[in-house]
């Protein structure tokens, strides 16, 4: 049996998620005292070694999460953030930086929680191994303030033009596919099929992973916060919402991608 620790400020707020996890035969321990002890004393507790997953409740504020997450990474735990419905900019940043393993929502069904936790169980959790991150299907992103900008500064405009000019034909096609999808996730298989127009094989998937990595690297030279393409493990890829907004609002940038 797998053990789950829910750190919360109000154990009554965790009844629904607790029941869903118990229906999946997880042993759930819900505690506000452990949160208080860990936050105040920050001492090494053997207590945490009994759990495979720790869920940080939405009752815990962002400033406390900022303190807790780096400390919890010292343990062999899958760190999961639970939210009501919206992911804050900081939560998403931690997900992208792989300090969180997943973000789940109160609205997730038993089936969705089962698949999420099973996927996390299969992935390695040591510090030397790449950790994949996951975002619940029921969670939506809060649009950062930067998305409200309708016009790029001349310097920013030049940065994005330079990157788009230096994208290969395949890289441009992948970016265009993701732009067309908007905020939706596109599976790796769907992208491969559109790129190569044939049955998807391991070679295609490997080539896609390498190409997406190159796209991310090229956009690192711009003012874009976070990665240009978000990788959602087991689900596919999604374009960075700010990059999507900027390209759609700038006729020159959009033309470069569309005609690439």
TrEMBL record:
InterPro entries per the UniProt record, alphabetical = OmpR/PhoB-type_DNA-bd, Sig_transdc_resp-reg_C-effctor, WH-like_DNA-bd_sf
Entry keyword set: DNA-binding, Transcription, Transcription regulation
Annotated DNA-binding ranges? 130-241
Locate the OmpR/PhoB-type domain: which residues?
Answer: 130-241
Name of this chain's protein: Helix-turn-helix domain-containing protein
């Amino acid at each position: 049996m797998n053990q789950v620790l829910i750190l919360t400020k109000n154990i009554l707020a965790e009844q629904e998620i607790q029941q869903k996890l118990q229906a999946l035969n997880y042993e759930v321990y819900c505690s506000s005292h452990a949160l208080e002890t860990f936050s105040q004393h920050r001492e090494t507790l053997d207590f945490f070694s009994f759990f495979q997953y720790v869920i940080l409740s939405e009752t815990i504020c962002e400033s406390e999460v900022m303190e807790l997450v780096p400390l919890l990474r010292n343990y062999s735990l899958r760190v999961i953030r639970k939210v009501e419905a919206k992911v804050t900019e900081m939560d998403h940043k931690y997900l992208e930086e792989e300090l969180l393993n997943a973000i789940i929502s109160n609205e997730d069904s038993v089936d969705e929680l089962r698949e999420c936790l099973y996927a996390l169980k299969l992935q390695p959790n040591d510090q030397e191994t790449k950790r994949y991150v996951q975002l619940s299907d029921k969670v939506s992103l809060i649009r950062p303030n930067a998305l409200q900008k309708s016009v790029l500064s001349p310097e920013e405009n030049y940065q994005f033009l330079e990157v788009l000019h230096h994208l290969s034909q395949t890289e441009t096609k992948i970016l265009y596919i993701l732009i067309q999808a908007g905020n939706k996730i596109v599976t790796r298989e769907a992208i491969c099929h559109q790129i190569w127009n044939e049955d998807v094989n391991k070679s295609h998937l490997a080539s896609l992973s390498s190409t997406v990595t190159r796209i991310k690297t090229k956009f690192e030279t711009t003012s874009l916060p976070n990665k240009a393409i978000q990788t959602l493990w087991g689900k596919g890829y999604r374009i960075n919402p700010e990059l999507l907004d900027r390209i759609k609002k700038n006729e020159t940038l959009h033309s470069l991608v569309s005609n690439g």
